């Protein structure tokens, strides 16, 4: 499926050309611009009199042209199946003209028909694209690729054919000294501290850092940077990189991006990262060299990330292409422009596969990269298109496009802009890893991985969140920091600058999720109807004064006898407002401790029927307050509250509980207070209260075994 928002920047061209990859990580730099132009005659590409040549093409066949066994990488014309005689004759003719051809399979493990994969989150089968017929076609020398592609596209057995890509790095460290007085302002700006109070992530969540190789860039982070290890300095402790992915020599851009995603945090050295406990896996692609060097294309890198169980993918680059324009009105003009989706059908297919597998994808929107004339010709200006542009892969509908803001929440005026931009994140003069040290970098390359890191935290609390869900979460929670000039979504910052805390809170409330570890709630948390909040054993949730947990959906507290869940106040004083089950809600609270709700109810149940078992409720005004409820309260200790239980208009069951030490200061000190209720009590111990059991207004308590 072609991405809808790709279409707005589509250009009519005569010869679609050499595709460049630009790492979106620098400020305006004339030297870099000149260097980029010089790349037109490097690597496997040549431009001669405005005509481009290359040594290989990328082609995907519709049919089972090659029947290679799994793992085999190379083939020849003679390996084509004889049943497809027409296309075989076409390549035999090419071989007779240009010399021996070689076919390099981009995804060696792909076999015909093996297209079903199980989504590891949903368990459902997803149909991916057919990759067994995805090849480099390598010529012995440079050939006129445009005429060859035009002919090849007409063959009925060919799905698509395109030119390769090369990388043009644009990376500029702007503060090599680790002495910035402002520190990691980018994490402060997105409220990382409060986000970490909800979740520090999970080591089971993997962010794929897909990077470009070529020139000085290798696409691989420097694994030995101390901030990629959880120990104090050096390479001690646990690596922040999960097994798998690609390895190789390190490059600065990949290292900087990885530091933003998931540098080791709370280990007394280097920097912190929003993705505190999440892990990464590095992938590189490079189409600037012949496939003999073992390089893979972008689509193949994405497919490997999918196969290895990635949760989030970050693209900190954009693609560009060289092209010539029609002779009228332009003559002999060579242009450089941003790639549109239609130029990369293989990558489009891989992104669609990733979306189908529930992977969240984010990409840099790009820096100062508009179209410009690369060389010569006459009357070129009328064909030059300036202004708001798209940027690929950020332009794809299934990828969130991220631009960069500075410490004042301002957009960078000469960065790429347009309707395709979704969100903004801090990206100017931000500290991150490079080599074995820390430096400051700028660009959308370093805004995008901050959003990828947030996606990792979101996936940590709810692994079922999809790309569409994530976009909706950010639309709702991002801050419209330029609303005075551009209210609502705009071409500079999209929906606004992300807020990590608000995003995680909104996820829990509106999509549900899981909490674990140490959690601090500074604001009310309300779980929507139909959504489930799960709290794992051993979790401690602290509440600031006046904060309440409200359940309109489902609450499941999965404590264990040896690893209870604790709900308590924050600090040694103060009062929080307890847990409230609203009408229609449900759940199970098991092996929990609920304490210090001094101005309210430990658990308040309104027209709902949860099960509360093996739970201690103490130091509350009311331990339990039920209204029109058939809840089951079993094997609980309700101790040292002003009033143990206040039950109205319901028929709850109280089984094997101990209710004691209800000494009223603000209440009457009843162990059990029934008002218009018809409860059942069986094997309960009710002792040492001001009043053991008090009933009023036709309360009919039943003592005995449950029916």
> What number is the mean pLDDT?
86
- Enumerate the spans where pLDDT stays under 50 for 5 or more consecutive residues: 7-19, 26-43, 167-180
Could you tell me the radius of gyration in angstroms? Answer: 31 Å
CATH C-level name of the largest domain? Alpha Beta
Shape: elongated
CATH superfamily of the largest domain: Peptidase S8/S53 domain
| Tally of separate domains | 3
> Counting H and I runs of at least 4 residues, what is the number of helices?
11
Strand order, sheet with most strands: 22-25-28-31-34-37-40-43-46
Q: Distance between termini?
A: 59 Å
**CATH architecture field of the largest domain:** 3-Layer(aba) Sandwich
Q: What share of the residues lie within helices? A: 10-25%
Percent strand equals: 25-35%
Stated plainly, the CATH topology of the largest domain is called Rossmann fold
Strand runs, count: 46
Give your account of this protein's structure.
This protein is an alpha/beta fold and 707 residues long. The chain has a 9-stranded parallel β-sheet with strand order 22-25-28-31-34-37-40-43-46, covered by helices on one side. Strands 23-26-29-32-35-38-41-44 form an 8-stranded parallel β-sheet. The chain has an 8-stranded parallel β-sheet with strand order 24-27-30-33-36-39-42-45. The longest helix is centred in the N-terminal third of the chain and has 14 residues, at 85-98.
